[in-house]
Design a protein that fits this description.
Elements lengths: L1 E5 L8 E5 L9 E10 L2 H7 L16 E7 L11 E4 L30 E5 L3 E3 L6 H4 L2 H15 L7 E5 L3 H12 L3 E6 L2 H9 L4 E4 L6 H8 L5 E6 L3 H10 E9 L12 H6 L3 E4 L5 H14 L5 E6 L3 H10 L5 E5 L1
Helix pairs in contact: 3-4, 6-7
Length: 334
């Protein structure tokens, strides 16, 4: 089979296409033909060598696949089924018990940057009805992260105010899911062109954070002068103070990314005095993914896809991601 592989020490020049033996489905496993994957920031860090992995690691955590063989004892899937990977294959439901990435495809284990993958039958959910493989491949990391942050943890309800940051995959899915839930959304970006696209997707208000560095106070005012109920925080320490300033008393912040750094100063007094809840979010469980797919089907949500690359052009896909010119998800066809 054809695979993409990250050679040490990483970087775009060390991302190669090579041939490896086809895997075989063992007992309790299914063999899937990967049809599409999509790029996430986590994949980018792996490919660039920022997360240590064994030499030759196959990247990509997302996989939209077709079952081509089933191992002994498999009851959930049959040949021809369309299935979707899980970021945490071992986290089936309930609270997360292990925060490590040992089983994450494309990180602690080989991922979906390959034509064929063998994995336990519990490592997949169904795809949404009527979705293409390219569309479905956008869901397992970015969409599920947004779902867990604003729905499973943030418990948004109709009429709530949700603040999203930027135009990455998680933020756009958060905007779409929040609007589907009847919420009002404030979105930030530094690009006037992207701000217009956010409005076209349904954002009620947009803020250019470069022109307005005190965007937290602006969001607070826009939310009826009471503050927002939920913040999708993707910046980390560099944006946390503004997110806290945007929140209503008793609001919720989903800490999803650390694009501005892994540590920094946080105004803890403002956090606790406003009784704000801060939740660390790393994707979600199988049950959450199933719930999200049900909600997506009920609301007719479709992903925003920026561009599509064949697996052979995976290095070009990551270069496009690094340019930060994209709006929505970058997809690989396998």
């Amino acid at each position: 089979m054809k695979v993409a592989a990250v050679k040490k020490p990483g970087g775009p020049g060390n991302l190669v296409i090579e041939e490896r033996p086809d895997p075989v489905a063992g007992p309790g496993e299914v063999l899937v033909r990967v049809r599409a994957s999509s790029l996430n920031y986590h994949d980018f860090v792996v490919v660039m060598g920022g997360i240590p992995t064994p030499d030759g690691r196959i990247p990509m955590s997302d996989g939209a696949c077709e079952v081509v063989a089933v191992g002994e004892g498999v009851t959930k899937w049959k040949v021809g089924d369309k299935v979707l990977s899980l970021f945490f294959p071992g986290w089936q439901s309930g609270q997360i018990e292990a925060a490590g990435f040992n089983s994450v495809p494309g990180d602690g284990a080989d991922g979906f940057g390959a034509e064929l993958v063998a994995a336990p039958e519990t490592a997949f959910t169904r795809m949404p009805e009527g979705w293409t493989f390219e569309e479905a491949a956008t869901l397992p990391c970015a969409a599920l992260t947004a779902w867990r942050g604003i729905v499973a943890e943030g418990k948004i309800k109709p009429g709530d105010w949700v603040l999203t940051q930027g135009t990455g995959g998680v933020s756009i899915f958060a905007l779409q899911l929040a609007k589907a839930a009847g919420c009002r959304v404030i979105s930030t970006s530094s690009s006037p062109e992207k701000l217009e696209k956010l409005k076209a997707l349904g954002a009620d208000h947009v803020i250019n954070y470069k022109e307005n560095p005190e965007w937290g106070a602006e969001a607070f005012k826009l939310a009826g002068g009471r503050g927002v109920d939920e913040v999708v925080e993707i910046g980390g320490p560099g944006t946390m103070a503004q997110s806290i300033a945007a929140c209503r008393p008793g609001g919720h912040i989903s800490l999803i990314g650390v694009l501005t750094g892994v540590s920094g100063e946080v105004p803890t007094a403002a956090l606790f005095s406003r009784n704000i809840t801060l939740s660390g979010i790393t994707v979600g469980s199988r049950r959450m993914q199933e719930d999200m797919i049900d909600a997506i089907e009920a609301n007719g949500i479709k992903p925003v896809i920026d561009s599509t690359f064949p697996l052979e052009k995976i290095a070009d896909a990551f270069a496009h991601q690094a340019s930060q010119k994209h709006f929505g998800k970058i997809v690989l066809t396998v």
